[in-house]
Design a protein that fits this description.
Blueprint lengths: L6 H12 L3 E7 L2 E6 H17 L7 E5 L4 H12 L3 E5 L5 H11 L3 E4 L2 H10 L8 E4 L13 E3 H10 L1 H13 L6 E6 L9 E5 H14 L7 E3 L7 H14 L2 E4 L6 H8 L3 E3 L2 H17 L2 H22 L6 H21 L7 E4 L6 H9 L4 E7 L4 E5 L12 E2 L4 E4 L4 E5 L6 E2 L3 H7 L6 E9 L6 E6 L4 E2 L5 E2 L1 H9 L4 E7 L6 E7 L1 H10 L7 H5 L2 H18 L10 E6 L19 H7 L1 H8 L4 E9 L5 E12 L10 H8 L1
Parallel strand pairs: 1-11, 3-4, 3-5, 5-6, 6-7, 10-11, 12-13, 13-14, 25-26
Antiparallel strand pairs: 1-2, 8-9, 9-19, 14-15, 15-16, 17-18, 18-20, 20-21, 22-23, 24-25, 26-28, 27-28
């Protein structure tokens, strides 16, 4: 095992040990294509030789921009094989965002998918003096372009095969010279609070983390995963390259982003990861389907799901359950649970994880009640993902598990969570100041999250982002994300932003889910011309108010967050959008920017206004700017009087 100190070396091991097993699958033109580990090794070597032929030097950076495709995963390993550094970039980034990343890392080359990505690079190329080559996968629409420095990826591979005799010795020298502490990949943070930072991760970071996390869940070469999350996100890198290469399992790529659900159903992965939003969206789709079903089917579904919520998680965790309940659950499995798992593409899932942000307890319990071994992990790009994981039979909605193997945790006096592990990043690229403020000399990393470790169980409980956790004017704990996740459990609510730090009470912005609410409008013959019109419909506002008040009743029973009940809210006239800077590319709320952009709406929520008129700048799909005007109704929500507790009270009680 000592020689397995780089991804290219893991590739060589997999080719020897699992040569005939599938390494990659991709659905193209309706047919699943497959590459074995031996075939993948040959493709990667040809591309690595081609990169040498066009002059890629050790340590240079290569941007990778496109959707999840075997060609891009193999390209990243080919780049690593010549001792260069792959830098995946979010494919839906606008040209300006791509320009920042490529300029910051000084990218020498860009490997992109198609005409859309080529056009973005050409638009910004004048600002990127170091960028000398653009390689692309899909030729459509590019025939009449200037190909002086624009080359099909397969042509580079052909160049590599033709020049093998000239470059093979150099490739072997570079590949063999890759050290355990050399850079494996550079991934950029989502930029929630500012400009994205380039996180440098070494081979040691990725391989040690992949090994430990794979052993934690007993992953083997027989696993199958669907790679559909952005390649620029650390989660996809650790699952689709780190763990895949350590274990030797197969990575499946969907035909298109839009066919992900269909392809998930076809593949039936055994190991699955999705952010909370995915599970929220699936519940929305399922709820819509059941509302359209007949009365008998709808009634059966509701009855069995009520049973599942009571006994499903207990059965999954091997806890005692009465004989009658077991029999009824088995009947429900045939009639309801198995069909739902099948529709969700999770019939074969042995281990499923969710992370990225807190998941609503109701959403989490819903999926576990169906018999899906859904667990939570807590991680960061700077940790090579894994900080904590939930062991089997110790799964709870209110914790993120125990420290992953090799990880140490400590809680600062401020309540902020710190960790130390073999996965801790090397540095922020060209940013020594941020590196020093995040990672100390002993290797402890500040997560930016507030939490505490439970006495007795050792489980970590995350309260919220440390910068977001605060107090109301009366001293009660303010943790907006927890409340937002409760709101997003309802299929009609897509996004929520809760305000209240240092205020007398909490208020909220709500985004409706256009799919769910639009379906309701269609069933009830309610005509609407736009999102804005539907968002302002009185029946929609009534429904949202009912959801807010239900969340308030739930919060009233929570000792920690009973003071976070929402007193006033409004439904926004536009969807929060990454192109407008309101969300990150991983769809995390940029709370400060939203507060500044909609400052007039925040003020109206607290000054007693019943309505507020506003004008907002928006970005259209083609990049043009425009504005929309709206007059929004502000609603009062019923709250439950309670005796609130401060953060100090809660932490003291836990200890």
């Amino acid at each position: 095992m000592a020689e397995l100190t780089s991804i290219p070396r893991l590739l060589a091991r997999n080719s020897r040990a699992y040569g005939a097993r599938p390494a990659y699958r991709e659905k193209e033109f309706g047919i699943w294509q497959s590459w074995t580990w031996s075939e993948a090794e040959a493709e990667i070597e040809a591309l690595a030789l081609g990169l040498l032929d066009i002059g890629l030097s050790p340590g240079e950076h290569v941007a990778i921009i496109g959707r999840n495709r075997p060609q891009f995963y193999m390209a990243m390993v080919a780049v690593q094989s010549v001792a260069a550094v792959p830098v995946p970039v979010y494919q839906d980034s606008v040209a300006e965002e791509i320009a920042y990343v490529l300029d910051h890392c000084g990218a020498r080359m860009a490997i992109v998918e198609d005409q859309e990505q080529v056009d973005k690079i050409i638009e910004i190329r004048g600002r990127l003096p170091g960028l000398s080559e653009i390689l692309y996968v899909d030729k459509r629409g590019l025939r009449k372009y200037d190909h002086t420095h624009l080359t099909p990826l397969e042509q580079v591979q052909e160049m590599g095969r033709a020049s093998k005799d000239r470059h093979e010795a150099e490739l072997n020298r570079r590949r063999d010279g890759i050290g355990y502490d050399d850079t494996c990949v550079m991934l950029y943070t989502s930029g929630t609070t500012g400009r994205p930072k380039g996180v440098v991760l070494s081979n040691r970071n990725i391989i040690e983390t992949s090994k430990a996390s794979a052993e934690f869940d007993k992953l083997t070469e027989t696993e199958s995963v669907l790679a559909y999350l952005p390649m620029a996100w650390v989660g996809d890198f650790i699952f689709s390259i780190g763990q895949a290469y350590w274990c030797g399992f197969c990575v499946n790529c969907p035909e298109q982003t839009s066919t992900m659900y269909e392809n998930l159903h076809e593949i039936g992965p055994t190991y699955f990861f999705a952010p909370p939003r995915y599970f929220e969206e699936r519940i929305t789709i399922l709820t819509i389907r059941m509302e359209d079903a007949g009365a008998i089917k709808r009634g059966m579904y509701k009855w069995f799901m009520k049973l599942a919520s009571r006994v499903g998680p207990r059965i999954l965790d091997g806890k005692p359950v009465g004989v009658l309940d077991r029999v009824l659950y088995a009947v429900g499995n045939v009639l309801v649970y198995r069909p739902v798992r099948n529709r969700a593409g999770m019939s074969n899932v042995r281990v499923a994880y969710t992370a990225g942000e807190a998941i609503g307890p109701e959403i989490f319990d819903f999926w576990r009640s169906l018999g899906i071994n859904l667990k939570q992990l807590y991680g960061q790009t700077e940790a090579s993902v894994f900080i904590t994981q939930q062991p089997d039979n110790e799964v709870r909605a209110d914790t993120v598990g125990v420290p992953s193997p090799g990880v140490e945790l400590r809680i600062a006096e401020s309540g902020e969570v710190f960790y130390r592990s073999p996965g801790v990043f090397v540095e922020y690229y060209k940013n020594a100041e941020s590196t020093a403020s995040t990672k100390d000399a002993e290797g402890w990393v500040a997560t930016g999250d507030a939490g505490f470790i439970e006495e007795g169980t050792g489980h970590l409980r995350i309260i919220d982002r440390a910068k977001d956790v605060g107090k109301l004017a009366n001293g009660a704990l303010f943790a907006p994300k927890y409340v937002e996740n409760k709101l997003k459990f309802f299929p009609n609510i897509l996004e929520a932003v809760v305000h209240g730090a240092d205020r007398e009470y909490c208020t909220a912005f709500i985004n409706i889910d256009l799919t769910a609410v639009g379906n309701w409008a269609e069933r009830n013959n309610i005509a609407y011309a736009s999102y804005q019109e539907l968002a302002g419909h009185q029946q929609v506002l009534d429904t949202v108010q009912a959801h807010v008040e239900e969340v308030n009743r739930s919060l009233a029973t929570d000792d920690m967050l009973s003071g976070c009940q929402i007193h006033r809210f409004l439904v926004l006239h536009k969807e929060l959008d990454a192109d407008d800077g309101e969300l990150t590319r991983t769809r995390k709320v940029r709370r400060k920017i939203i507060g500044e952009k909609f400052h007039d709406l925040v003020a109206a929520l607290y000054d007693g206004s019943e309505r507020v008129s506003t004008e907002t700048e928006v970005t259209y799909e083609d990049g043009r700017k425009g504005s929309i005007k709206a007059t929004l109704e502000i609603r009062e929500a019923k709250t439950v009087p309670v005796e609130v507790k401060t953060l100090e009270d809660v932490v003291e009680a836990a200890e």
